[in-house]
Design goal:
2 copies of one chain form a homodimer. By secondary structure, the first copy, chain A, is of the alpha/beta class. Chain A contains 7 helices and 12 strands. The termini of chain A are far apart.
């Protein structure tokens, strides 16, 4: 086999690692790929780690032990993430987004691949320190961000539904009180989730935490631990507070007719 | 500024380009990033193009003209994609997936970041030759794949809803006949779509094309051209055929009680 230059090896390793964030690749994997010695791959990894640091491309980490190797985490890609979130806040502060009833239109942001990819990485970054087996969201608007967070965490996404669907098989249904006080139902396929696993709840908007509270109750039915709850946007002063320990990427002041409102990144967003 | 080695430049360019598929980066963008001459970046691009070809990492393309530069497309990443799709087909042929009524459980596949990322790239690959301004899907199950296709095409995702939602603003509603013959409604926010643009419809399952037919009708209301229709899974022998020109990634034979069924990749999947 033709010798592969370091140039090429670094480009290939970059793509393989960044395409599968949070997955551990053994050095042997790259030795086989390049038909090269472990010491050479070790040097490559060290070089790549420095380059990624220098150019703010995320973090390359060496994991020791039997299941050890190297893994990539998209932490602070492009530098500090606060300006990225501030950019979204500015878009959300466009008064033409205010809808009758004081709602804020942000479905476009929540389905834009570039925005949701960035937000998903930020959410994952906040939970890399916590064991998470899957990301849970409730249909519909939070799905894209939740998917991107799941991808960055290297775990599956599970989607709870509003009603039981025949194509989900037998399901667990619960009732919960939504943010606006109405009684809603939530349904999740029995086969979707393993008992004893750990869920990260990701959703688009928190008014009082009603829907997330429903998801917490749903997880209890499955004997699943909730490892964290994260929203894209939350009220600065929630109308109620039916959950605890949640994070929001952005905070929205009350929207009152004729008055201006603000959207700002949460303090933990650096 | 310290001189940046080719090693490093190639690693950085790989990440920047692969993280933003189908987006054109000018050579000047990288000249500024590395404080280096255009001729050097040109050589880097040529090298990277060869490496990506050699290692099946996708296609790096030079685009000439005023808006020219270099763009990355995740075409045949990892080699031929047929084995990847065959792997999904094998999973779907597990008889424990058959639900009462002849439905097939595949929500888990449709929300797995690795599967939907691969399938999204395959769908995008099939439409790189066609101008597409956005991807349209109907909630819920197709959203992850549609998002990944949108990301690979570098366009937004638009999600049609089953009912009008207050937080979507004023909306266009249509009625359509679903695959199982019932009358359903579909709603899309007025502000979601620009007149005169071009939509690629992506959805999870085609029985007779009813829902997709609804999306086609909905696009007509917005004066939007349908550039293509692609499903993750379709019936080998559809119960009806309410649309035309569609593609499916995988084809499912009829599921009859007690009989075995097959799922196979479509012929266009190479």
């Amino acid at each position: 086999m033709e010798k592969i230059k370091r140039n090429e090896r670094l480009a290939v390793m970059t793509q393989v690692l960044t395409a599968a964030p949070n997955r551990i690749f053994t050095l042997g994997y790259f030795c086989d790929m390049f038909n090269t010695a472990k010491s050479t791959v070790s040097e490559d990894v060290a070089l790549l780690e420095d380059t990624m640091k220098k150019f703010h491309l995320g973090r390359l980490e060496t994991v020791t032990g039997a299941a050890g190797g190297v893994r990539y985490r998209p932490v602070q890609v492009g530098g500090p993430q606060r300006p990225f979130v501030e950019g979204i806040c500015r878009k959300l502060m466009d008064p033409s987004r205010v809808l009758p009833g004081g709602y804020l239109y942000f479905s476009d942001i929540l389905a834009d691949p570039e925005y949701v990819s960035g937000m998903g990485k930020l959410i994952a970054t906040a939970y890399y320190g916590t064991p998470v087996d899957f990301v849970l969201t409730m249909e519909t608007k939070g799905i894209p961000v939740a998917l991107m967070a799941a991808q960055a965490l290297n775990v599956p996404l599970i989607i709870a539904r509003r009603t039981t669907k025949v194509y989900e098989g037998s399901a667990v249904n619960i009732s919960y009180v939504s943010g606006n006080g109405s009684i809603e139902t939530m349904s999740l396929s029995r086969r979707a989730v393993k008992e004893g696993s750990r869920a990260l709840i990701v959703d688009d908007f928190m008014r009082g935490g009603g829907t997330a509270g429903g998801m917490v109750a749903l997880m209890k039915e499955f004997n699943v631990t909730v490892a964290g709850i994260c929203f894209v946007l939350g009220l600065e002063n929630p109308t109620a507070h039916m959950i605890e320990g949640e994070k929001c990427l952005m905070l929205l002041s009350d929207i009152k007719p004729g008055e201006s409102y603000t959207v700002r990144p949460a303090d933990w967003v650096l």
